[in-house]
């Protein structure tokens, strides 16, 4: 198996590189660092540049699914900064130093404030209300944003990198590309049947409860790396369970409708977005499984099977 863009599949070595890159960027920006602390090592590494109230976000495993990770991080900085300035419930980029994206040792790095939060999980109504408030704050974003980047580039770029690295059999990559075409056709059919009636919504992109934090100032969205524009149904599908409707979906959707004044979409409208989310998750997990088999191998197998089983394309 060929190595991917981050080198050999050694998750521990990659985390060490990420911490070193975070510290190097911090020092380059004039930060006096005492004891950097690793906060997370999931899709990205989060490093507290102690004693500074700064967190470096380093694209590690997420870079396995994107041709240019810095471009995704740049959009996150731009949308988060504008939404926060308009009073939106979102973590803004750092104002203490240049937030980036910066580059060190082949890794992309952005800088964010250290955020105090309780760890309490958002309830379904909290989720719907906070999402509506985020959409209100991101409305009218002046810069161009890709349309449904989560369902388009997130999948196509990950499949390209899987193919180039030998991270999945060629036959499987080909089958997933065929499913991707079906998914995109279904999303385009949705647009024809349910016109947006105006500019596309600026989406969070990954609006689940794990990305909504309980802070002293209220609920706050983080991790807008998958931000872009598109039908609001994408964010609503993710917030109400992703590829499988959650038991609390009605409460989330009703809270969104109450806060936004929009109508509540039915499951028929959300169905193509749920399927697209399933494929995104399947390709994401498949890409990361060779670096972190303990975390991603089982969901990759399960979600890939579900994505292929739901396809109309015959396969041998």
**CATH architecture title of the largest domain:** Alpha-Beta Complex
Low-confidence stretches: none
What is the CATH homologous superfamily assignment of the largest domain?
Aminoglycoside phosphotransferase (APH), C-terminal lobe
Question: Which class do the helix and strand fractions yield?
Answer: alpha+beta
Task: Name the helix and strand elements from N-terminus to C-terminus, one letter apiece.
Answer: HEEEHEEHHHEEEEHHHH
Average predicted confidence as pLDDT = 91
Under CATH, the topology of the largest domain can be stated as Aminoglycoside 3'-phosphotransferase, Chain: A, domain 2
Number of strands: 9
CATH class category label of the largest domain? Alpha Beta
Fraction in beta strands: 5-15%
- State the separation between the terminal residues, measured CA to CA: 24 Å
Number of helices: 9
**C-alpha-based Rg, rounded:** 19 Å
* Helix amount: 40-55%
Let me know the largest β-sheet. Answer: 5 strands, antiparallel
| Order of strands, widest sheet | 1-2-3-5-4
Query: How does the overall form come out from the CA principal axes?
Result: globular
Total separate domains: 2
